[in-house]
């Protein structure tokens, strides 16, 4: 993502921009979801072949089969392809991710509301940067992840410091 593609807020400046250099096909959640999808697809296939349902029951079994196959492999394929069209940017106030397989969607998280970034190392000196809490932008497959993590940690601290109320000076207090 180049700085020219980002709709910056007034006074906002780009600190870092990049894209995934490694696109993971499987992630940790797939260790549960993919096997469950395989079981669901196998049961639906057995039901279709053994019971030979008709009408709405057959349609329901086909829907279950498609959902099982999507959970088993489809999610991974869609994520892999979408990461090929993903770009990231870190500004002095936000993290921005623009992604999507067919239509680009932009998500952002305010730095001042984020916890320190958590780095999960990946293959070939890449990594995934995530944040505690729901809805925060996750940066997958980032190159030089330690450098980006350190930049993010500093930017988060600075954003929180800008939003903190000024501390009261203890010498200004007077007794009545």
What report would you give on this structure?
The strands form two sheets. This protein has a four-stranded antiparallel β-sheet with strand order 1-2-3-4, covered by helices on one side. The protein has a three-stranded antiparallel β-sheet with strand order 5-6-7, with helices on one face. Helix 1 packs antiparallel against helix 2 (56-83). The model has no long low-confidence stretch (mean pLDDT 89). A hairpin with a 4-residue loop joins strand 5 and strand 6 (126-130). The protein has helices at residues 30-51, 56-83, 145-163, and strands at residues 14-18, 87-91, 94-99, 105-110, 118-121, 126-130, 139-143. The termini are far apart. With 176 residues, it is an alpha+beta fold.
Class by SSE composition: alpha+beta
**Basic shape:** elongated
Radius of gyration: 23 Å
Tell me the helix content. 25-40%
| Strands, count | 7
Helical segment tally? 3
Overall pLDDT, averaged?
Answer: 89
């Amino acid at each position: 993502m180049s700085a020219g593609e980002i709709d910056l807020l007034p006074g906002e400046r780009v600190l870092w921009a990049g894209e995934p250099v490694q696109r993971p096909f499987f992630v940790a959640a797939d260790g549960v979801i993919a096997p469950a999808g395989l079981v669901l697809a196998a049961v639906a296939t057995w039901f279709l072949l053994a019971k030979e349902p008709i009408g709405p029951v057959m349609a329901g079994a086909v829907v279950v089969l498609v959902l099982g196959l999507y959970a088993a492999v489809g999610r991974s394929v869609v994520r892999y392809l979408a990461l090929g069209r993903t770009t990231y940017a870190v500004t002095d106030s936000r993290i921005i991710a623009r992604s999507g397989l067919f239509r680009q969607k932009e998500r952002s998280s305010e730095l001042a509301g984020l916890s320190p970034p958590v780095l999960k190392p990946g293959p070939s000196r890449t990594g995934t940067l995530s944040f505690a809490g729901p809805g925060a932008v996750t940066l997958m497959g980032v190159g030089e992840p330690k450098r980006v993590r350190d930049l993010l940690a500093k930017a988060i601290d600075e954003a929180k410091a800008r939003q903190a109320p000024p501390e009261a000076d203890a010498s200004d207090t007077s007794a009545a």
